[in-house]
Amino acid sequence: MTLWTRIKAAASGLLGPLGLTGRAQSVTWSQPPTMGTEDLLSGYESMPWLRAPAEKVGMEVATIEYGLEAIKGSRGKYIRDAAVQHAGFEARSKALTVLRRQSRLVRIEDHAFLDALNEPNPYMGRVGLLKITNIHVDVVGEAFWLFSRNALGAITGFWPLPPHWVTAKPTPGEPFYRVSYRSWQAEVPMSEIHCFSEPSPVDPYLRGSGIGWTIGDEVEVDEYAAKMAKALFFNQARPDFIVYGFEDATEKKRVERDWLSRLQGWQRANRPIFMSGEPKFHEFQRPTMEQLVYPSLRKVQRDVILQTWGISPEIFGIVENSNRATAEAAQWIFRSSVVSPRAERMREHLQSIARLYDDRIIVTYPSPVPADKRFVLDVARAAPSRTLDEWRVLQDLEPIGGDVGSSIPGPVSTPSPAADGVADKKPPQAISEHGA
Hints:
By secondary structure, the chain is α+β, with helices and mostly antiparallel strands. It has a domain at about 375-410. Helices cover about 45% and strands about 10% of the residues. It contains 18 helices and 10 strands. The strands form 3 sheets. Strands 1, 2, 3 and 10 form a 4-stranded antiparallel sheet that branches. A 3-stranded antiparallel sheet has the order 5-4-9. A 3-stranded antiparallel sheet has the order 6-7-8, with no helix packed on it. The longest helix is centred in the C-terminal third of the chain and has 31 residues, at about 325-355.
């Protein structure tokens, strides 16, 4: 048997109907939500360092303006270009720029998909829907949209389902979602729910994997440290000290009344107490705020959480080791390495839903990465022959228009005396040397 024959036989065994892919497609059971999914999502309400990055990233992705465009063919009819629909951001942007210059790209401002996305349901708008979806995917690795349809069967809205409500995902034997919430139990067909999933490396065919599972211990430790500090303020039902050794209860009561009458209350704070016997001095030690809040431990947990999300601390105003340069770079890093990939992930799912309306639609969005103003300025300086309006656009100013706006500014020089109407006269020395 030749080497090529062996390779073909191995590939056939791996990819054939009885191989790996065949086994993956013939799975007849679905995993329920991972234990603790609801608790992890509930932690968003009570754990600061779970909520802070999840909300920040979710809001950034939700406020991106997703739009619809379509391509006109040579005969003037709209066509489907699958290569552009599924291309990455850079390749798609270049292709759309070329089509736009050729006047073949049409921006769609009025569409049923946009109406459903902008007003998905009576309880939230577009920003709320996209924000909660991104939070679900980031934290637990899954999100679900339940479609609402009109009498004609067209999709008119979306209802986000918390991942722990979906108790079972579709299988070849049971092609429907099982949804359970309190008394509501339903079997929803696959066509009525769209699943956003971040595949798990351990088993990509079952439930998703989110960042929340990775940082679960860190956010819990931070929460327990906060609760421990809170418990210290309530003294954990333990006194600061105990006085004992009295001969009888009457003597104990007398000393207790005397102690409280002398020292209890804010107006008697910092007063000393004097007792009979050999003169001695004793000071009660109180825990400091440094000991109460465990700053070192909480800082370590905070840094681990932010590093797992890939977010620079400057984004949250943590400027202990920062300067202006690092603060400006933090915004660029955040938008390019954190927001941009999630925006593309969201666009990919919106593109899949858009095909249910019209398979020719292309979902687009502007780049969330801010322009490098220093680079643009350096390029402008290298090629200064720009119109006045082009220079004003670089300064975020409105173009002037007309002949003035299209003119090219020249260098500014100091006017000569002749320009002010003063005669150009020779110095007195020159006159005396050469005669009158």
